Amino acid sequence: MKDTHVQVLVVGAGLGGLSATLFLAQQGIDVLTVSKHAGTALHPKATGQTPRTMELLRRAGVEDEVMAGSGGPITIKIAESLQGEVFRTIATDEDAPDFGALSPAPFGMASQDHVEPVLLDRSRDLGAEVRFHTELVSFTQDGDGVEARLLDVPTGRLTTVRADYLVAADGHRGKIRESLGIERHGHGPLAGHIGIIFEADLSLHTAPGRTTLFYLRNQAFTGAFVSLTTDRRHVLTIEHDSRESLADYDEDRCTALIRTATDVPDLTPKILDVTRWEMAAWMADRFSSGRVFLVGDAAKVTPPTGGLGGNTAVQDGYDIAWKLAAVLKGEAGTGLLASYEAERRPYAQAVVDSSYRNYVERFAPHLMDDDVPAPIDYLELGFGFPCRSSAVLPEDDDAAMEDPFTSTGRPGYRAPHVTVRHNGSETSTVDLFGRGWVLVTLDPAWNDCGVDVPVLTDPSGRLGTRYGIGDRGASLVRPDGVVAWRSPDLVLDPGATVRRVLDSVLDR
Ligand SMILES: Cc1cc2nc3c(=O)[nH]c(=O)nc-3n(C[C@H](O)[C@H](O)[C@H](O)COP(=O)(O)OP(=O)(O)OC[C@H]3O[C@@H](n4cnc5c(N)ncnc54)[C@H](O)[C@@H]3O)c2cc1C
């Protein structure tokens, strides 16, 4: 294999790495992605795409394919077993929030082994090169770029790749963070788990067309059961004694555990796989070093109680992709890249805090004390978390999370979903974003501002108030759908004003 130069080398082809790859390729960036594994994930693991994640996937044209593998609405309970005493109902579709009022994108319930191949295929369609069985063995960086030694695992051949930037998406156990001297802190390992993936007809015991997630606490074990509605597959994961090994979980023992979990004493499940994994909570002290950026589990590890690890990985990939693309295309100065850590690390910390609290409530109530973080509202975390960095111009010091149902389009927050008319048809404002910078306004006086100014009409009359721009103001929205700046009214020289704002937030 010939030694090469690429603009971005991505190490890791999980949800984080493949998202970075896809979104970079979509921006026309020359990207090479390597994974030491033979292919994409074989296990369901991260199941569920919040509408915020789905908005990003929709921009890459893969929403339908992701939804094709999506189970129905989710029911979450803490219970003794599937039919046993229910200690608490956490979520049912009857009490689900009205996500349609927040986003044009749906809530997906696809599992990781379905989503990763979708991201991979689309990345390759867009021109990205993705090599499996290819391991990063070492790398160095200097002022101009990164030099990486890659091992082709089947042949043992080593090659050198030079890249302008390296995205480290090498997961929980990846070595890149350590080799940069970045430490991580947090609650650390919480519990060793045995995950049993099995096939069985449980249609009489779980709601058909629904995704069932039961946290289980009984005499035999503490664990969780997830039914992946689309193909009779289910996962039972249980905390295990660290002295035990996988060999201790033979077919008979797994079958007995599944029968206890499901309350079906004569069930004969087909055991598809048994794996060991570690529930943990970690946060990297920094998310970047020089030309290297950590995404997904390389940057933070969250307990899956909350379903946000995979979602955060996709969102990290999107964030670093648009920022790297802007710098590589000469549209932004390198200072923009500092906003990756400034924005993503506080969010990751909130995800870990919220998921850790969920872990204590659902798996380990004996750990509940004053040090356990306070609950965080799921919708505020998903839609109303602030971005505070040089890439936004906030109007005040208030950086509290906001209720997305009453959000007012303040800079630093996700631009709200409002149905408007554009090019003769109804569309969501959210669907205007993603291809570049967009100026949302109803006043044509803002037209020549050097960014996309879609011609909009506002039949519902809600745009002006939801964006805080009235009939004459404007809101400047970043490629990730976050408001960077707004003006409540028309300004004297709109073009010069917007260009000045862009110079500031893009560090140019
Ligand atoms: C049992 C379980 C259930 C979960 N449930 C949920 C859930 O319901 N919802 C949710 O959002 N999240 C969930 N998660 C978390 C989610 O799976 C992870 O957050 C997500 O997979 C992280 O993706 P990643 O791309 O950062 O890392 P990974 O998926 O771990 O990918 C790491 C990649 O790095 C590659 N790699 C590592 N080292 C090298 C090297 N030296 N050279 C080349 N390649 C390398 C690997 O081959 C792999 O491709 C769950 C996790 C587990 C374990």
From TrEMBL:
Gene3D superfamilies according to UniProt: 3.40.30.120, D-Amino Acid Oxidase, subunit A, domain 2, FAD/NAD(P)-binding domain
Cofactor: FAD
The FAD-binding domain, residue ranges: 6-354
Keyword Membrane: no
GO molecular-function term, one example from the UniProt record: FAD binding
Keywords: FAD, Flavoprotein, Monooxygenase, Oxidoreductase
A Pfam family annotated for this UniProt entry: Rng_hyd_C
PANTHER family in alphabetical order: BINDING MONOOXYGENASE, PUTATIVE (JCVI)-RELATED, TRK SYSTEM POTASSIUM UPTAKE PROTEIN
This protein's name: FAD-dependent monooxygenase
Organism: Umezawaea endophytica
Phylogenetic classification of the source organism: Bacteria, Bacillati, Actinomycetota, Actinomycetes, Pseudonocardiales
